[in-house]
Amino acid sequence: MSKKVYQIVTDRIVEALDNGVVPWAKPWQGGYSLPYNMFSMEPDKGRFYRGVNVPLLWMSGHSDPRWMTFSQANKAGFKIKKGEKSSPIVFWKFIEKKDDSGNVTQTIPLLRYFRVYNAQQVEGVPDLPTFPEVDASVNFENCQALIDTYGVNVVHGFNRACYKPTEDEVNMPNPGQFKDVESYWATMLHEAIHSTGHKSRLNRNINISNATDYAFEELVAEMGSAFLCAQMGIERDDLTANHASYIAGWKDVLRNDPSAFMKAAKLAKVASEYLLDFTGASGYTGGTKEAA
Q1: What are the tens digits of pLDDT across the range 9-58?
Q2: Of 72, 77, 75, 274, which Cα lies nearest the Cα of 192?
Q3: C-beta neighbour count of 33 within 10 angstroms
Q4: What are phi and psi of 29, to 5 degrees?
């Protein structure tokens, strides 16, 4: 079953990339960012879908963050609109094997999936409450606070953005070279995700020696940056993600290893949450629990 789920996820992601859609890019401006289950999640308490489920639901194109299963909709007296298609989300189910004394001797992880519908696909769902107007400058200040507290060395004045593992240093163009402040911070957060892989932090394979490893790490950084931008309220412009060479490399990785996208999403989730732990700012939504 796990292999089937990996393939379902991979097929959806590759199909989106084939169509020029970057699945981990939020496809609308403003409003709510992170998806959640309408009946089991409380967004004001910071409980949202995480990891691979975020891009799987973002790529549907729906701007409403609320999702539900068919049975949840029926139980609430709602009705799925005719012709609407569901979206898959995944979860891990753990099977415990016990000995004759009842002691757990083995825990077997099983990857499963089920299907959900967005509130925009369902009749009878109450309107979303009006979300408050947000001062974007506060989110930029929160980003700066995150980087300052995190403490990685950032050096400006370069003609490209990159992270150098040997120096543990982020190199950036000057802020004025970016088309807007959102692009600057999206790029900074992308490089910050790379830096979490340093051996003194999350110890990820970032000393890239081949095209496959490079494409995989870029996938981690792209998704991690997207997660952070959603958390911090930054409207992200996916200029890097739309480069044909990147997309081709990602598709090669995914086709060669159907589990690669879920692995990358997990690493991106861990990296983004690692960085968020360094900020005491209140301008992000802060998901903390995996939704099912």
Answers
A1: 999 899 888 887 788 877 666 666 789 999 886 555 557 888 899 999 99
A2: 274
A3: 25
A4: -100, 140
Q: Which two structure tokens, joined as six digits, stand for 283?
A: 């301008």
**Phi, psi (degrees; rounded to nearest 5) at 93:** -110, 135
For the record, the structure tokens of 100 come out as: 């004759």
Tokens 């489920």 — which residue? 53
Tens of pLDDT, residue by residue over 246-262, are 888 899 999 999 999 99
Q: Is 92 or 67 the better-scoring residue by pLDDT? A: 67
Q: What is the pLDDT of residue 52?
A: 92
Q: In degrees rounded to 5, what are phi and psi of residue 122?
A: -125, 135
Token pair, residue 127, equals 């309107």
Tell which wins on pLDDT, 242 or 151: 151
Q: Where are the alpha helices (DSSP H) in 41-180?
A: 53-58, 70-75, 136-150
SS3 at position 54: helix
C-alpha span between 31 and 233 (Å, rounded): 9
Q: For residue range 154-183, what is the model confidence (pLDDT) as tens digits?
A: 999 999 999 999 999 999 999 999 988 988
* Residue 265 parent element (H or E): helix 260-276
Residue tagged 């340093």 (tokens): 198
What is the spatial distance between Cα 20 and Cα 27, in angstroms, rounded to a whole number?
Answer: 12
Residue 120 CB neighbour total at 10 angstroms: 14
Query: What are the strands, taking DSSP E only, across the chain?
Result: 36-37, 66-68, 79-80, 87-98, 104-118, 122-123, 153-156, 162-164, 169-172
β-pairing, 153-156 vs 122-123, is unpaired
Neighbours of 121 (CB within 10 A): 22
* pLDDT tens-digit readout, 140-153: 888 999 999 999 99
What residue segments make up the domains of the chain, in order of their start?
Answer: 2-276
